[in-house]
Design goal:
With about 140 residues, the chain is mainly α. It is built from six helices and no strands.
Length: about 140
């Protein structure tokens, strides 16, 4: 009967529905030397949990509030410097226009080049539309509906 109970507790344990007392029962069962042969595979796991529960951290953890205060001051100065840098960037960044950077002759040359590009692009799109019509007609003959 006890073996049946242990098997049910293991099932509950792996489904994460076991209570703390039931987990303690499992730890006690697997800490014994006489464990059922088909449950021996779980024994190392529960023995590890029992041993890990006894471990304690014994080193001193240094808590220095001076370092924490210094960090707060440092973060304060860094955030103030970042705010000043953003304000300076917004102040000195004046918007420029194309006319300010390029001469009227350069702007006219660029407009002419773009208009030629547009004309050639339109010719290409007309030819692609012819290809679309060709594909539709060939599909009519190839795919009999």
């Amino acid at each position: 009967m006890e073996l049946d109970n242990i098997e049910k507790l293991i099932e509950k344990y792996f489904e994460a529905t076991a209570a703390v007392a039931e987990e303690e029962t499992l730890r006690n069962y697997f800490s014994q030397e006489s464990v059922a042969p088909h449950l021996e595979q779980y024994a190392p796991m529960f023995q590890y949990f029992s041993n890990a529960k006894k471990e304690r951290f014994t080193k001193q953890v240094p808590l220095t509030p001076k370092v924490v205060g210094a960090r707060k001051k440092l973060y304060g100065w860094i955030s103030a410097a970042a705010a000043v840098a953003i304000c300076a960037g917004l102040f000195f960044n004046q918007p420029t226009t194309i006319e300010d950077e390029y001469s009227p002759k350069e702007v006219a040359a660029a407009q002419e080049a773009l208009s030629l590009l547009g004309v050639n692009f339109n010719k290409g799109t007309q030819r692609i539309s012819y290809l679309g019509e060709f594909e539709k007609n060939t599909n009519k003959f190839l795919i009999k509906q």
